[in-house]
Amino acid sequence: MQNIKFNQDCVHVVFLGVPNVPGIAAEIFNGLSEHSIEILMITQNTMRGGRSDLAFLANKSQLDELMSSCRKISESVGAQGVSFATEVAAINIALANTSEAAKILAKTFNALANAGINLEIINSSFESINCIISATDSQKALDALRNA
């Protein structure tokens, strides 16, 4: 595979059980922007009971400020908690064209699965596929993807 970028200098943050109502994401990211937190990727899933988990990646260099800010924001938005994972790596694979996306997704997931690598987060757009994995699997993942 071509155009693979790797980032081990990131932290995976999850706001757990936030109320699934308009304005919560705005409040969270307004609070983070006040502290100039750089956001690398965002995902959200809707859960039962009117709650969602909102996750994002940020730069590990901002960890102290990030933890302090997120704990305050979590409390203010009525989240059930916030978690931080610092031993993660982000893989970004550029898509040359969207007509090949399904084929590249299959190839990516097969290569990682065959290497025994579990995906913690999957996110894609028109331009790229993003996968978050354990940092301990970084080199194995990179080798598997390059060999694919």
CATH homologous superfamily label of the largest domain: VC0802-like
**Major sheet: size, sense and barrel closure?**
6 strands, antiparallel
Q: For the terminal residues, how far apart are their CA atoms?
A: 6 Å
Total individual domains = 2
Q: What's the alpha carbon Rg, rounded to whole Å? A: 16 Å
Shape: globular
- What is the count of β-strands? 6
Low-pLDDT parts are none
What does this protein structure show overall?
The protein is α+β, with helices and mostly antiparallel strands and 148 residues long. It has 2 domains: 11-85, VC0802-like (2-Layer Sandwich); 88-146, ACT domain (Alpha-Beta Plaits, 2-Layer Sandwich). Helix content is 34%, strand content 39%. The chain contains 4 helices and 6 strands. The chain has helices at 24-34, 63-77, 101-114, 138-147; strands at 4-19, 39-46, 51-59, 81-94, 121-124, 128-134. The chain has a 6-stranded antiparallel beta sheet with strand order 2-3-1-4-6-5. Strand 2 and strand 3 form a beta hairpin. Helix 1 packs antiparallel against helix 2 and helix 3 (101-114) packs across helix 4. It is globular. The mean pLDDT is 92.
Kindly list the characteristics that best describe this protein.
148 residues, VC0802-like, Alpha-Beta Plaits, 2 domains, 6 strands, 34% helix
